[in-house]
Amino acid sequence: KDIQTGEYAKSFIIENRAGAPTLQSRRRLTAEHQIEQVGGKLRAMMPWIAKNKLVDQSKN
Length: 60
What we know:
Blueprint: H1 2-5, H2 7-17, H3 21-32, H4 34-44, H5 47-51
C-alpha cells in the first residue's frame, strides 16, 4: 500500500537526504552481530575467497 500511494518513495527520499541514518544504523547493527563477526574470521582463514570477491564492503 505504501508503494502504491507513494509514501514509501517519499520516506526513502527524505531518509537519503538526511544522510540515511536508519540505513546506517541497521548496517552497523548487522555488522556487530555475532554471526557476522564469526563469518569475518572464517573468511579471513580462506584467502582464495577474497581473491574472487565481487563486492567491497568498505566501498559499498
